[in-house]
Amino acid sequence: MENALVTSAILITISRKSSLLYLDVIFITICIFCCILQVLPADFPKKWTKRFRPGSQFVFQYGCVVYPMVLSLSSFTLDDVMNSIICSLISLCFVIVISNFNIVLKLVLKLFVVGLTTYCIFNTNILYSQLIFKICAFCIFFAICFYAIPGSFTLGEGFLVCQMLTSIYDYELVLFMTSAVNIVDVSMSLANTVLFFVTFSILFFLLLPSLSKESIFYSVGFLFIITAVYNDWLAMIVLEALKFMMQKSFHRFSLLLYWASLVCASVGFVSQRHSLDSASTSERKVFHIFILLVYIPGLICDTPLLYLCSVIACSLFGLLGVVHAFKIKPLGEVLDKYLRLFTSKQDTGTFILTPIYLLLGLSYPVWLCCMKYPSLLENKTKAIPKEGYSGILSVGVGDAVASVVGSKYGAIRFTGSGKTVEGTISSMLVQFLIVLGIHYVNFININSIVSIIFAICLTSLAEAYTDQIDNLVLPLLMYLLLT
After folding, report:
1. What's the rounded Cα separation, in Å, for the pair 345 and 354?
2. pLDDT for res 382
3. What is the pLDDT of residues 303-319, one digit of tens each?
4. Which value, in Å, is the radius of gyration of the alpha carbons in the chain?
5. Which among 8, 103, 208, 319 has the fewest CB atoms less than 10 Å away?
6. Where are the alpha helices (DSSP H) in 123-182?
7. For residues 58 and 154, is the Cβ–Cβ distance under 8 A?
């Protein structure tokens, strides 16, 4: 059912365009190919299945179709979109290679993927050096997801995460940045530096298993800090950030103080819990309330500050996630003690991803909107486009309401799903009321009520049937439908 809902969202998005572009034909072709792979009886060898998180291994559309489409609808260049499509085709080729299809079928599927990949490469202006770099980055992230932290991702989630990391990964922002032009450069440079550091650390963990992980982690970190200080990169970033903060000093420091109080409240909520039992659904969804109290005022009052702080927060969460997953002293054990209390049933691997996905799910639509409409970072527009609220609606509000109402009052369950009809209907209603409330105070533009209702209903149904980590996939699906 989830596959049908996601495929419907893809086809509906394409059908709303005035004309069919060759990119849309490629998206439809890949979507059909994903559906074929999902129908075919493909059992993976045990050496591979133990690397995947138990769940739906065959929902490939999120990473192979939805994400490239989201890039094409944002401000990313055609080359970026084609790079993403080629990474999608590499992912599908991997599925074909490791699956137990018969020889003839496997050969036909390989020829199809190779042919489509060749077409994509030779019909665009992609620089081969850039393409090779992106493919290498994608393969490195794939190895990290399934070799370094096995059991943390389903195959579909792994494809999507690797796509997202590859699209924002730019080594030039780390190695060759000589001037910080604006807050976007500052934010993305910080994010890429953390990503660069984390990637190198994990690769060394894999390549040098005899050495202690603490010595590798702190040695690589020390080299990065020395390099940043020597090249004046750190001082440049700090000066640019201070200049940004001083533009509206009282306003921005007040907002930061408010956010800091919410962080202290959330830390207090975690630390006061003395029971060793796993947290209930209601207790886990408290964090959705905290993050809504951060993002809604941030979007209304100061989108540029929210953009900068969300990038820093996501980078910090990723760094702490690595410290926890590999038990890096002194924080590794402390993080494990508290994080394990608030894990969901999907956190079965070494890497606890639900908190990171929650933050990333609310942040990514905002980043995409800011890249698509640069004036949002210059305070020249009054309201952020409705797709910027995709994460807030689908995850911050919808998922939380559906879980709480469904667990307390749910009686009728969807066929083939553990989710309840009462929870899903409540989720739809509350999301729509939130949209109307924000629209009433002129902080969101609604061009079509029908499109909003349709996006909310389809995304809520996908939440009811998905066994992926919904914090990650639902915002992208709603962003696609609202754009």
Report:
1. 10
2. 58
3. 888 888 888 888 888 88
4. 22
5. 103
6. 128-143, 155-168, 172-175
7. no
